[in-house]
Design brief:
By secondary structure, the protein is α+β, with helices and mostly antiparallel strands. The protein has 3 domains: about 150 residues, Beta-Lactamase, CATH 3.30.450; about 100 residues, Helix Hairpins (Orthogonal Bundle), CATH 1.10.287; about 150 residues, Histidine kinase-like ATPase, C-terminal domain (Heat Shock Protein 90), CATH 3.30.565. About 50% of the residues lie in helices and about 20% in strands. Helix 1 packs antiparallel against helix 3 and helix 7 runs antiparallel to helix 8.
C-alpha cells in the first residue's frame, strides 16, 4: 500500500528551494562584498609599493635610473604568500627596470595618475597597480603586480565568516518553520480526533476551536455536509416510518378481505374478491407514490437535460386518459411550446401527480383542464378541475405527506402534492394553489423560472 505523504513534509520541501535560493543569493552577495574589500585593501598596498619605487627613480645626464637598496628590495618584493613583480618604463614602452613581460595598462587614466587592473604574468593571474609620474619632464609608468593568493584567502575568509552565521540562521529558521507548520496543522489533527470519536449516527456540527481561517472554512463546509446528511437521513427515517404506518392499513384490509373470502361459499365470493381487488389497487398506488416520493427526496439531484414540457404532458396524458374515460371526466389540454432544464423522469412524475390528483378529486362528468403557458417570467403548468377545491386554510397542509382533507372523499393517499413540491424544489420551481375561475374547483400551478427555461 502506497504511503500517504506528510503534509508537513510537503510544506517543508516546498519551502526548501526558496531557502536554498536565499543561501545562494547570500553567498553571492558575501563573495562580492569580500572580493571588493580584499581588492580595496591590497590595491592600496600595491599603490604604496609603486610610490616607494617612484621615490627611487632619478635622471642622470638625461638617462632614467632606478636605484633600490638591497634592504628595500627585500621589504618591497619578498612576501610569504604572493609573488611580487615590478616594472618601470616610459610611456612609449621603453624598458627602464623590472620584469619586461609585465603588461602595461591599455591607456592612462584621464583624471588620476593611477590605475588598477587584472592581468596575466607567466601564466598566472595577477593584480597590477600602475602609477604615472614625470621625472625632469620625462613621463614614466611604474607597475607593481602581485599574485592573488592573499586576496583569495581574504575573500574566502570573509565569505565563510558571513556564511557560517547565515547557515546557522537558516537551519534555525527551518527548525522554527518545521515546528510552526506542526503547530499550524494541529487543528487538523484535532479535527481527525473529533471525527474518529464520532458514531455513524452522530452528525452534530464539528467544533472549529481556534483553528485558522483556512481550516475553519473546511470545517464549515464539513458542517454544511453533515447538516445535509442529517436532513437526508431524517427524511429517510420519516419516510420509512410513514411508509410502515401507511402500508399497515391497506395490508390489514387486504388480509381481512382474503379471510372473509375464505369463509364465504362460491356464490358469495364476488363481493369479497371485488373488495380485495380494490384494496390491492390502493396498495399498488400507495407503493408507487412512496417510490416516487423516495426519488424526489432532497438527496437526489435533478439531471440537467432539456425537457420538452408539451411532449412530457402528452406522454403522461396517454396513461391518464383511460382513468378519465372510466370516470366520464373531460380531460382537456391547451399547451404552448415550452422547454425547461431538469430531469425528464421527475418532471413527468410531477405532471402525472398533478393530473392524477385532479382526476381523483373531480366527480363524475366533471372537467379537468391542463394548460402550459410560457412567457418572459418563466413557464407555468396549470391543472384546473371542477372538484370541491381546496380551502385557503389548508393550502399549505396539503403539501405535507399523507395529509388529506377530511371532506375530500377521494381515494388518494396524501402523497401526490408532497411529491410535486419535492420535485419542484429540485428544479428551482414553485407550486401554488388557487381557485379555478373557469371550473370552480382547484387550480394548481407548477411554475419554472426563466432561468430554468431551455
Amino acid at each position: 500500500m502506497r504511503q500517504t505523504p506528510s503534509l508537513r513534509r510537503q510544506l517543508a520541501l516546498r519551502l526548501l528551494p526558496a531557502v536554498l535560493l536565499l543561501i545562494l543569493a547570500g553567498a553571492y552577495t558575501a563573495y562580492n562584498v569580500a572580493r571588493d574589500s580584499a581588492l580595496l585593501a591590497y590595491d592600496r598596498a600595491l599603490l604604496d609599493t609603486t610610490l616607494a619605487i617612484s621615490g627611487q627613480i632619478h635622471v642622470e645626464r638625461g638617462e632614467v635610473r632606478l636605484t633600490l637598496p638591497r634592504g628595500a628590495e627585500e621589504i618591497l618584493f619578498v612576501d610569504k604568500y604572493d609573488k611580487i613583480s615590478f616594472r618601470v618604463l616610459t610611456t612609449d614602452g621603453q624598458q627602464i627596470a623590472g620584469t619586461p613581460h609585465l603588461p602595461p595598462p591599455s591607456a592612462p587614466p584621464e583624471e588620476e595618475n593611477r590605475v588598477y587592473y587584472d592581468a596575466t604574468l607567466d601564466g598566472q593571474p595577477v593584480r597590477v597597480a600602475a602609477l604615472f609620474i614625470e621625472r625632469e619632464g620625462i613621463p614614466l609608468t611604474v607597475l607593481v603586480a602581485e599574485t592573488l593568493v592573499k586576496r583569495n584567502n581574504l575573500t574566502w575568509e570573509v565569505v565563510l565568516g558571513m556564511l557560517l552565521p547565515e547557515l546557522g540562521l537558516v537551519f534555525a529558521t527551518l527548525a522554527l518553520v518545521w515546528l510552526g507548520i506542526g503547530s499550524g496543522l494541529r487543528p487538523l489533527d484535532d479535527l481527525r480526533k473529533q471525527l474518529a470519536r464520532r458514531s455513524p449516527s452522530d452528525l452534530r456540527p464539528l467544533d472549529t476551536g481556534r483553528s485558522s481561517e483556512e481550516i475553519a472554512a473546511v470545517v464549515a463546509e464539513l458542517n454544511h455536509l453533515l447538516l445535509r446528511l442529517d436532513q437526508s437521513l431524517t427524511a429517510q427515517r420519516h419516510f420509512v416510518s410513514d411508509a410502515a404506518h401507511q402500508l399497515r392499513t391497506p395490508i390489514a384490509a387486504l388480509q381481512a378481505q382474503i379471510e372473509l373470502a375464505l369463509r364465504s361459499d362460491a356464490a358469495t365470493l364476488a363481493a369479497p374478491l371485488q373488495g380485495t381487488v380494490s384494496a390491492v389497487q390502493r396498495l399498488a398506488h400507495l407503493v408507487q407514490q412512496l417510490l416516487a416520493l423516495a426519488r424526489a427526496e432532497p438527496a437526489g439531484q435533478a439531471n440537467e437535460e432539456i425537457v420538452d414540457l408539451a411532449a412530457a404532458v402528452h406522454r403522461v396524458a396517454e396513461t391518464m386518459l383511460p382513468t378519465a374515460f372510466a370516470a366520464d371526466i373531460d380531460l382537456g389540454f391547451s399547451l404552448q411550446a415550452a422547454r425547461v432544464k431538469g430531469s425528464p423522469l421527475l418532471i413527468e412524475e410531477a405532471i402525472a401527480n398533478l393530473i392524477d390528483n385532479a382526476l381523483r378529486y373531480t366527480p363524475r362528468h366533471g372537467t379537468v383542464n391542463v394548460s402550459l403557458i410560457a412567457d418572459d417570467n418563466g413557464t407555468a403548468l396549470r391543472v384546473e378541475d371542477s372538484g370541491p377545491g381546496i380551502p385557503a386554510s389548508a393550502r399549505e397542509q396539503v403539501f405535507e405527506r399523507f395529509f388529506r382533507l377530511p371532506e375530500s372523499g377521494g381515494d388518494g393517499c396524501g402523497l401526490g402534492l408532497a411529491i410535486v413540491r419535492r420535485i419542484a424544489g429540485q428544479h428551482g420551481a414553485t407550486v401554488r394553489i388557487d381557485d379555478s375561475a373557469e371550473l370552480g374547483g382547484a387550480l394548481i400551478e407548477l411554475r419554472f423560472p426563466a432561468a430554468c427555461q431551455g
